[in-house]
Structure formats: structure tokens, C-alpha cells
Amino acid sequence: MIGGSFPEVAWHMETPVVRTAPAPLFVLAGLVRQHGLKVVLTGEGADEMLGGYDIFKEAKVRRFWARQPQSRLRPLLLRRLYPYMKNLQAQPEAYRRAFFHVRPDDVDSPFFSHLPRWRLTQQLTALLADDVGAALARHDPLEELRARLPADYPSWDPFAQAQYLESTILLPGYILSSQGDRMAMGRSVEGRYPFLDVRVMEWAGRLPAVHKMKVLDEKHVLKRAGRDLVPPSVLARPKQPYRAPDAHSFFDSTTGKARHDWIGEVTSDRAIAAAGVFRPASAAKLIEKAKKGAITGVKENMALVVLISTQLVHHRFVAGFPPAFPEETQ
Question: Where in the chain are the domains?
């Protein structure tokens, strides 16, 4: 399903991504349209406005640990993070401590909550061709973002800072766009977002952080509001974020082959070289690993998806587009 729809998904996204998550929503929107519906209500914005994401818990635990960095007990709270990520849970304690470790200069960073994830994503640049990597190295996105922060941002509660970053970066740039409106409208379905009603957002903005996350209980106020409407078993269960298979969607490890012909076409040595974005040798190594089913970690899954989605974007919008003025190429 994901692999089969991904070329069309890339067409509607018009941008590379690191996750396959938009694809199932594209298929779901198609089913909605088949049933004659044109408008759906969705919950986007609830996690950002009311503190539902695991990254808020992660930042809270890391900051708690940073106040006593030599403590052997405080890092144990990391075990409560991401129970659904079996590979992470299987890692030794030292691995989790190293990944979530708070560096001395991190505590005062305006991006404290997001630094581990951004550093992980930054490692994907090793896959890039030398000239592309060099061009990116000349640009500092954190400095650009720092210049755009509100003047009073440093005085905000750390929870509010984390919410701001999620709400101004991931929400509009990905959740509501690549994974949201573009997927729904690709099937002629319109999404409506009650939690992003301006009155709800203003109310949530005035709400103290303790009502959004009580200790490590996410969206606490929403759970209280819905306790007479939602079964206790649902309210008490651990949050399960929306995730979709990545590498497994494109390659069958039992046969060692791509699940669809188009995958081989856009990831061939010739196609990789023609696009010029990635190092051919590094790309080939990653693809071979995917064919063997040896990709299990978050970083390599992201690398594979960004490789495939970038190649698709190049295929559809660069190599596949005729020049605007053909006579200029003659």
C-alpha cells in the first residue's frame, strides 16, 4: 500500500520527507472520497496545543536529569520514554544515556527540547554528495531560526518554548502540509481542525503547563474533560503515536527485491548519479542493506526514506518536467 502509492504521494507533497507517514493518510483520504464524503474533522493541533507529544516528556526528563547530571537514578526515567520503540528499549542503558545526554551548553539553548532529534537528522548529511553537503554546511539553520524567535522567548517556560518550536516548525511545515492538506486534497477531501480554532488556541496558550502535562501524563486537561465520554481503558493506556513502516514498505527482505519496479528505477546507480544529490556508493550500500532487511534503526530508516523521496521528487519535477521554453535549449 505505502510503496504502491508513494510516487503519487511525492507528486502531491512536492518535497522530500524522512517518513512514509503521509502515504497511509493519502490512501485513507481516497477511501473517504469513495464513500462520498468531502469534509472530515481531524485532531491536528491537539498534541501541539495541549502537550501530547513524547518530545515534551523527553525534554522534561532531560532537564530534570541535567539539574543533577551525576545522578544514577534520574536517567532511569528515560525507560519510560518511547515504550513502543522496541529497538530503543532493547538498547543497553549506556546507549539511552548517550543519546539523551544533556551537554553542558544545551541547558541554555533556546532549542533544548529538540536538540537530540535535530542532531540525529543532521547525521543524514553523510549520505549527501560532497558539493551538496558543502553547500549545506555554509548555511546555519539554527542561527536563522534563532533570529526569528520572539523577543521575549528566553523568558518563557521551557514547556512553552518546546510547544512553540513544534507549533511553528513541524505543524505548519509538515503535519498540516505534506502529511495533511496535500494528502487530503490529493483525493479532493477537505480537512477541518477543531483544535486549531483560534479561540481554542488562545485558551490553550493561557493554560498553565501543569494542566497540559501533569508529571508525565500528556494532554491531562483533555483527558479530564473527556473522562465521561472516553472509556477509562483508553484514557489510561500509553500514548501510541502515528507511525508507518519505512524500509519494509519498499523492500522485501525475504526475496531481496524492491516491492515495486519504480523503486529500482529511481534508486539505480544511474538515477542516483543523474540527480547528483547523494553519494552513489553510500546510496548503494544503504539500498543493499534494505534489501537484506538489515535496516532497523531510526536513522537508517529516515535515510532510506529521504533518499527515495528525494529521488522521486527529482524524477517527477526535474528530470520529468519539460523545459518551460523549449526553444531556449536548442
Answer: 1-20+246-318, 54-168
Q: Residues 7, 10, 16, 22: is their CA dihedral positive or negative?
A: negative
pLDDT tens per residue across span 257-282: 999 999 999 999 999 999 999 999 99
* Nearest residue to 249 (alpha-carbon basis) of 23, 9, 82: 23
- The residue whose grid cell reads 520514554 is 81
Element (H, E) at 257: strand 257-258
Provide the grid cell at 53.
507529544
The three-class DSSP label of residue 191 is strand
Quickly tell me which residue has 560532497 as its cell.
130
Helix, strand, coil percentages, rounded to 5, for the chain? 60, 5, 35
**C-beta of residue 256 within 8 angstroms of C-beta of residue 292:** yes
Number of H helices, E strands in the chain: 19, 4
The single-letter code of the amino acid at 307 is L
Residues 237-241: contacts with CB within 8 Å, 24+ apart? Answer: 238/83, 238/84, 239/52, 239/54, 240/84, 241/53, 241/54, 241/84
Q: What gap in Å lies between CA 136 and CA 257, rounded to an integer?
A: 33
Report pTM: 0.90
Q: Which region, left, alpha or beta, applies to residue 17 given φ > 0 means left and ψ of -120 to 50 means alpha?
A: beta
pLDDT tens track for 95-133: 777 777 788 888 899 999 999 999 999 999 999 999 999
